Amino acid sequence: MQHSKWHPSEGVTRHSGGAIAADTDFFVAPSPEIGTIITADSNLVTSKQEMETSKCWMFILLGAFLGGAFFQILPLIFGLGSSIGWHIASVVSALTVGLIIHTKTSFSYLCSYVGDQGIEEHKISGSRQGKLISQRLKFNEAEDLYTAQTRMYTNGVYTGTNYLYKWIKSGTKPFRLAGSYHNKKGWPEEGHAWHCANSGEAVWSNYRLRQLNQDLDKQGFIEFAMKGNPKAVRVGSGFLEFVLKDNSTQRVGAKDMKKITLGSGNFNFVHNNAKWWSGKGKYSFNYSNLPNAKLFLLCLDRLVGISWS
User: Fold this and answer.
1) Tens of pLDDT along 220-273?
2) Residue pair 39/118 in contact by the 8 Å Cβ criterion
3) From the CB of residue 69, how many other CB atoms can be counted at a distance below 10 Å?
4) Cβ atoms < 10 Å from Cβ of 111
5) Which residues contact 195 (CB under 8 A, 6 or more apart)?
6) Cα(126)–Cα(134) distance, integer angstroms
7) pTM for this one?
């Protein structure tokens, strides 16, 4: 039985919001640089024992051998004859079985933390004393967060969702949390790494909101710059202001909005006076092109009274 390097204080939850199990093994303690821990998770438990590398490979090779042999023996038993198809099936079966056993027996785990000042992620492989890969984001070093989630389809059939959370840092490479999950209508299962990114975005948004309140007091609005046209959107108390490519601005009060939608990854705002044949009074931009998109939603809710479930 191993002992966790860190134990959560009262009030700390999993990234998904659930309770942290008592046997969760946080194999690396969080750095003080990310502040007070708000959410944390690890997919390693204290009772987990590493399998010796030699034994892992023995099971992998044995499984691959049996998987391949099955499709060599099957045609002989039923008198189906030998063909290139059976040989291909044998190879594919051997590789598939070997991969499955490798996944089940390999030692590879992840623990992560979201604090009020940053995010940490640690990956370990081989054993508890094996190779450790860590990355850390301190919020005071980041400028903007861009997010994207893409549902993937093959021949009209849903095959999974890819996600990317990318914090832009001045003078250095971005901090990225990326991966995929399979759930067409909802979020991934509890414990999935996506929940760390989602929790991190929520905490980052509140962190930035406290800073941007100074802009609100000074300028009367909070600005979100982006690529395209409009090249920025400003959110103030009861209004939105769109900055166009020619640097002109168009202010629209909340009560003057005819239609406000968020669908298929796009924001769409339509003014009461907009005509169907004209682009004037219609504003559209992609969610993934908007920096700090969740913060934008927070501002819309708190300042303009626009919210989405």
Assistant:
1) 999 999 988 899 999 999 999 999 999 999 898 888 887 788 877 888 888 887
2) no
3) 13
4) 26
5) 14, 15, 16, 41, 187, 188
6) 15
7) 0.78
